[in-house]
Amino acid sequence: MGKLELNKKKKKDALFNTAFELFTTKGLTKTTISDIVDQAGVAKGTFYLYFKDKYDIRNKLVSHKTGELFFRAHKAVQNAHISEFDRQVHFIIDYILTELNKDRTLLLFISKNLAWGVFKGAFEEKMPDDEYNFYQSYLDMLAQSGLHYKNPELMLFTIIELVGSTCYSCILYQQPVSLAEYRPYLHRTISGIMETFSQDHTTCEILSSDTKTHVDHTA
Fold first, then answer.
1. How far, in Å, CA of 119 to CA of 137, rounded?
2. What 3-state class would DSSP assign to 132?
3. Least C-beta-crowded within 10 Å: which of 7, 67, 82, 99?
4. What string of H, E and C letters represents the secondary structure of the chain?
5. Is the confidence at residue 142, as pLDDT, over 50?
6. Predicted TM-score of the model (pTM)
């Protein structure tokens, strides 16, 4: 990375870090663009090089923070030398839950502002060396496994929606149970989701056939 690119990255990082601090302390409504640039020590014109308005930086910040989290999870699974795809998925989920449990501010910010479109931006967020993005690494892990799933993007969406929606209350409010108590149920459900999307089994077809046979027999 050249000196000019490095300087741009520092300014953008300063804007991200400052916006995150202000959004999580003052709130989005009470934070102005002037607040962000003044505290970041960056000219307002520089802000508009990267972002349209404070809602744009909020959305990109969610993608950025989520992308960083997935990047760390991906590095951790590599360091753990786990090669089986299903174990990689469970490891990454566990890693992310542990990190969010430690950083409640990040959990609140992501959960409050996350939508699938924003989350998909996190998949494509290049972290931190402009070469890595989570969604491509997910597809690479899947390709290396030799397994085949119907609509892998939809499978990922389903898992993430489940994890995000159910663990929010467990982490923040210990409701209906603590995260530690809920984890085994979560992992079994994730395994069920992956089985549902798998093209390598015939459970759904057998179930449908058995159901049809039963209905015909009792008619």
1. 15
2. strand
3. 7
4. CCHHHHHHHHHHHHHHHHHHHHHHHCCCCCCCHHHHHHHHCCCHHHHHHHCCCHHHHHHHHHHHHHHHHHHHHHHHHHHCCCCCHHHHHHHHHHHHHHHHHHCHHHHHHHHHHCCHHHHHHHHHCCECCCCECHHHHHHHHHHHHCCCECCHHHHHHHHHHHHHHHHHHHHHHCCCCCHHHHHHHHHHHHHHHHHHHECCCCHHHHHHHHHHHHHHHHC
5. yes
6. 0.79
Q: Which two tokens stand for residue 117?
A: 């479109």
Interval 62-88 mean pLDDT? 90
Residues 6+ away with beta carbon under 8 Å from 77: 88, 91, 92, 95
What's the CA gap between 176 and 145, in Å, rounded? 36
